[in-house]
Structure formats: structure tokens, C-alpha cells
Amino acid sequence: MRGSRLLAAMTVAGLSSALLAGCGDDGNGSGGGSDKPFAGQSADQIAGKAVAATKQAKSLHIKGDSRQPNGASLTLDLSVDQQKNCDGTVQTQGSRADVRHVGDTFYLRGDEQYWEKSLKGQPGAAKLLPKLKDKWVKVPAEDAVTKGLCDKQGLVKAMDEDKSARKGMRKGDTTTVGGQEAIVLTKKTSAGEKLTLYVATKGEPYILRTTTEGGEKPSSATFSDYDEDVRPQKPAPGETVDLRQLAKS
């Protein structure tokens, strides 16, 4: 399933690393801005706590977009939990796919543009396309090409990578994100990017928003609905198909 492989790869590699690259770990970065909240803590220490809290959350909703160096765009709107239940949509280059992970099965429902791109050049594609219209395609949950898409920990894994490159953030003032107060942490990279991280000041220090401006991979994402139940509905039998079985018919 080349289309599923592309979808998973773009989502995990594109959004996770691009949107979360600005998250830091315990360090000495301090910078200016208000000392309240998180009085006495450096910007890097605050970012480190935000990363840890976000990883430990039972669930979250992420809505964001990113652009790759080749101009390809990706938009993600997804609710996901620690048990890999997920429900949402992914849009890229004019195509859209709805995704769900229920029990041991991953479901994907792509629009016409999605399947045309995914099956381009494959034998029998013309016969498959009508059978896929408005249908949920079933994929085993352990399938290597899609399992990362509904893996909450996989989506935030980039926060723990290359810690040295994420040090040196600066504290700014507080603002509001989705009705919640957040402290603003920023960093400018050698590549000319401006990374901004918004961390909740009340309750758990969850990440509420992150942006990357400038550079080759501009992106933004908001995080909400922490610890809310994620209960995707299993598509009805008449709405589902098995792409592998269709390919054999």
C-alpha cells in the first residue's frame, strides 16, 4: 500500500520533527521575559518539563500543518491516545484521507485524488478506484507502513531527539492559546528559523502550540483535549474493504 506508506511517513517524519523541533530539555538557557510563572526556572528547563508532561498525557488532539522543502504541504487533524486509538484526517497536495484506529485494525478512507495518486502506475488501478470510492480500507494494526500514524508516543518522539540542538531557548511573556494561559519560549537557529513554544502555566505544563517560522520547513501546530477519551467508531461492514483482497480479485 504505497499510499499508506506515504501518509504515515509524511505525518510522523514531517509533522513530528518539524512541529516539535523547538522543544528543549533541561539546560541553561534563560533569556529575558517574565519570571512568572515558572519563577527561577530557565526556558530550557520549562521546555523539558513540557516535553515530559506531553509524553505522559493519556491522550491529546493535534491540529497542524507543515511545508516540506519540495513545496509539498501537509495538514493533520488527529486525536490519539496511549492505546493507539485515533480518529482524524490528513490532507496533502489537494487530497484528503480520514483515518481511524480501532482495536487491532487501522482504517483509511481516501478521497478520489488520494487514491489516484496512491495507485498511480500500479497494475489494475483503474479497476480498483471505483471499488474504493467512499470506502474504509482495512489495514492490520501491526502493518509497518501505517502503525506510526496512530502512535501517540511516536508523534512526540521527536521531542527527545538531538537534545543539544534544542538548547538555548528564551523566556518571553505570557499569552493565551485556546483560552489557556501559556508562557512563550523562543529560539532562533543558525538556519534562520524562529522556533516558538507555548507552554501551559496552570495545571500540567502541557505544550499548547508550537511554530517554526522561516527556513525550509515552516510549520505550526496546536495541542488540546489532553487526557480526553478517544473513542473512534468502527466503520460498518458494508463501508469497509480489504485492499489486498481487492487486488487479488
Write the layout of secondary structure elements.
Elements: H1 2-20, H2 43-56, E1 59-67, E2 73-81, E3 86-92, E4 95-102, E5 105-110, H3 112-118, H4 125-132, E6 136-140, H5 152-155, E7 170-177, E8 180-188, E9 194-200, E10 207-213, E11 219-224, E12 240-241, H6 243-248
Parallel strand pairs: 6-12
Antiparallel strand pairs: 1-2, 1-11, 2-3, 3-4, 4-5, 5-6, 7-8, 8-9, 9-10, 10-11
Helix pairs in contact: 1-3
Give the gist of this structure.
This protein is of the alpha+beta class and 249 residues long. The chain is built from six helices and twelve strands. Helix 1 packs across helix 3.
Written description of the protein model:
The chain has six helices and twelve strands. It has helices at residues 2-20, 43-56, 112-118, 125-132, 152-155, 243-248, and strands spanning 59-67, 73-81, 86-92, 95-102, 105-110, 136-140, 170-177, 180-188, 194-200, 207-213, 219-224, 240-241. It has a twelve-stranded mixed beta sheet.
The biggest sheet amounts to: 12 strands, mixed
Order of helices and strands, N to C?
HHEEEEEHHEHEEEEEEH
Low-confidence stretches: 1-35
Subunit organisation of the chains: single chain
User: What amount of the residues lies in strands?
Assistant: 25-35%
Roughly how many Å apart are the termini?
16 Å
What is Rg? 20 Å
| Average pLDDT over all residues | 79
Q: Order of strands side by side in the largest beta sheet?
A: 7-8-9-10-11-1-2-3-4-5-6-12
Find the structural class using helix and strand composition. alpha+beta
